[in-house]
Amino acid sequence: MSDFAAARERMIERQIAGRGLRDPRLLEAFSAVPRELFVPRELEERAYDDCALPIECGQTISQPYIVALTVHAAEIGPDHRVLEVGAGSGYAAAVMSRLARAVIAVERIPALARLADERMRSLGFDNVLVLSRDGSLGCPGQAPFDAIVCAAAGPQVPQAWLEQLAPGGRIVMPVGAIEGVQQLVRVTLDRDRQPHREELEPVRFVPLIGAQAYDEPDPS
């Protein structure tokens, strides 16, 4: 039987702190979340590998370092409300729940949203609300948000997110074409509600599907 706790600490030391992300709150949040419970059972031995892994419904759970980089860039404080778009298995939302007051996680695939919600309830992450909806439109009923993070690449930052972001808040998401290299960007909304964009790192993500993003792929 694997020692998942030891594997988790090695992952934190080598993949996150070892790459320069050493904020104690961030590292403690990753230490508090059992990643092996957010992947299919047949892949739990690989839960702490330095790569993305497949999950249910043909989707993926992001590489641990990319989750850490995104969460770190969002600068989540203990009183913050966070919107996560593309909840997937719920892993990133669980990590952010250790940093924020509340996390609203939206997922367009209902089956994935149900699984993520079940994980949150079974693991006691009771400050996470998982909803199934078009994440490109944000979640206006829960706005404003201090941070919005996304695990899928859009052609641009959705206008709906900018409208739902609190002054001083941050959006962290990959932007770029479906094929090819994308850029992880951070958009900060100043006190006058003017956005300021920074490019953080080249990445590759699945496309963000929705009314303010890419169209649903043609199954043919």
TrEMBL record:
Top enzyme category: transferase
Range of residues in the leader sequence: none
Protein name: Protein-L-isoaspartate O-methyltransferase
Database matches in InterPro entries: PCMT (IPR000682), SAM-dependent_MTases_sf (IPR029063)
Family label: Belongs to the methyltransferase superfamily. L-isoaspartyl/D-aspartyl protein methyltransferase family.
Catalysed reaction, written as an equation: [protein]-L-isoaspartate + S-adenosyl-L-methionine = [protein]-L-isoaspartate alpha-methyl ester + S-adenosyl-L-homocysteine
PANTHER family attached to this UniProt entry: PROTEIN-L-ISOASPARTATE O-METHYLTRANSFERASE (PTHR11579), PROTEIN-L-ISOASPARTATE(D-ASPARTATE) O-METHYLTRANSFERASE (PTHR11579:SF0)
Main location: cytoplasm
Alphabetical list of HAMAP family matching this protein: PIMT
An MF annotation (GO) of this entry: protein-L-isoaspartate (D-aspartate) O-methyltransferase activity
Top-rank taxon: Bacteria
Enzyme Commission code(s) on record: 2.1.1.77
GO BP of this protein: methylation; protein repair
Entry's localization field: Cytoplasm
Protein function: Catalyzes the methyl esterification of L-isoaspartyl residues in peptides and proteins that result from spontaneous decomposition of normal L-aspartyl and L-asparaginyl residues. It plays a role in the repair and/or degradation of damaged proteins.
Location of the active site: S62
Gene Ontology CC: cytoplasm
Presence of keyword Aminoacyl-tRNA synthetase: no
Species lineage: Bacteria, Pseudomonadati, Pseudomonadota, Alphaproteobacteria, Sphingomonadales
UniProt keyword terms in alphabetical order: Cytoplasm, Methyltransferase, S-adenosyl-L-methionine, Transferase
Keyword Transferase found: yes
